[in-house]
Amino acid sequence: MVKIIHVTDIHIVPEGELVVGMDPSKRLSEVICSINETYSDADLCIISGDLADRGDLASYRRLAHHLETLLVPYRLMLGNHDNRAAFRQVFPNVRVCASGWVQSVEDFGGIRFIFLDTLDNNRPDTGVLCHERLSWLAERLRESAGRRVFIFMHHPPHSVGVKWFDNMMLEQPEGFRDLVRQHPCIEHIAFGHLHLTTTGRWDRLSFSCNRGTCHRIALSLDSEMLEFVDSDPAYDVHLITDSGIVVHHTTPTSPDRLIAREYTTPDGKGRIEYVGDWF
Length: 279
Ligand SMILES: [Fe+2]
Ligand SMILES: [Fe+2]
Known about the structure:
By secondary structure, this protein is an alpha/beta fold. The chain has five helices and 15 strands. Helices cover about 20% and strands about 25% of the residues. The chain starts with a strand and ends in a 5-residue tail after the last strand. The site of one fe (ii) ion has 7 residues, from loops.
């Protein structure tokens, strides 16, 4: 089994600044503590873009400081809020493809992860996979013969039925979709960008998105505006087994929110032990 942690949309800002009234650094710290305590044995932690809210050097440096505390190997990706040049200045050793896009591959035996760079320098919200990036993807798929493939990208390549986002997706997605059709080895796509928790299936391909660590959006399918709501920071745990993938959606849990523990007993009924002042 391969265990992957999917973190997204962390939107780090310089010290003293907030995003929609929230402190992105504090929320990321909670998530890193939770990962370290519960999933330190994970094979990889993927942070799928919108790393810095305004793509500035100070925020990337702050992120680098946070990552020093993460016990799991990690891979950073870019989203529409990021700035590729500033990111690479702070993270000079990040894996990139020959053309400089922040795209890379990680293999775990017969399982291949492909990380895509959908940042469009010319648009603030939509994503793109230009001919160069698609050609790189096609080559990685061609050489992955016999492997199962899982793709991570910031922008969703299809609508998820939320009107607000329909004009903020991956632009001109036909090239990407053609590759998906041609390569049945692709089993699952994980993305961010939506600030919503969403799972489903397009044709044979399953997908997952978690709402990220920062500002969550209230689900509204047809609204002309966004509503941000106070919620715990969230992340996903992917368990890739011989037969498929399980995606657990979770949040950090502090000890003061623990209500009870249940233990097995010989009669099969179980024993519940309450904790603290709950009862
Ligand atoms: Fe975002
Ligand atoms: Fe985004």
